[in-house]
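subagent[fold] <- orchestrator: predict structure for attached chain, return tokens only, no commentary.
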Amino acid sequence: MIGHSQQAAETDRKLKEKELKALLARDEELDGLFERIYEDNVSGKLSDDRFAKMSRRYEDEQKKLAEKIKKLRSKIEKQSSQALTTDMFISLVRKYTRARKLTPRMLNELVEKIEVYHAEKIDEVWEQRLRIHYNCVGEITIPKMLPLPIPDVTVNTRKGVFVNYAPAEIAG
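subagent[fold] -> orchestrator:
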């Protein structure tokens, strides 16, 4: 699942880099156009009024391009740092693949936070939703298209209280 999301992120990053390259090329092209209209104005081929209108339009476009370039670079940088944190998470998970018991240390290393929702009575059964946010990668959603077996896990947490595990799409 993480491999699939990494491939999607890599494809997205390549598209963003391609877009960035196109924006940078247009920015350079605008510099050249501005030089040309300046030279045409100096030589008298272009009136001062027309030069002012064209230069204003080119400057406005360059300002918009500069903002887009800045945002795109920021997004690309953020994606690159996320890829590194995903790798860190995978190395953490590999450390515990053979673990037989969940320890506090494992939880501290793997889990950033757990959101606990109010318990609700549905069909005469009390249900409570949890959302787990993992360190480095955030919340992981398992795609519905993968036919995964639903584990039958029941834990007796305290006298008379049992906890059953159900994936998010079933739990609602």
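orchestrator: received. Logging for downstream: The beta strands are 111-116, 120-122, 125-127, 130-134, 138-139, 154-158, 161-164. The chain has a mean pLDDT of 79.
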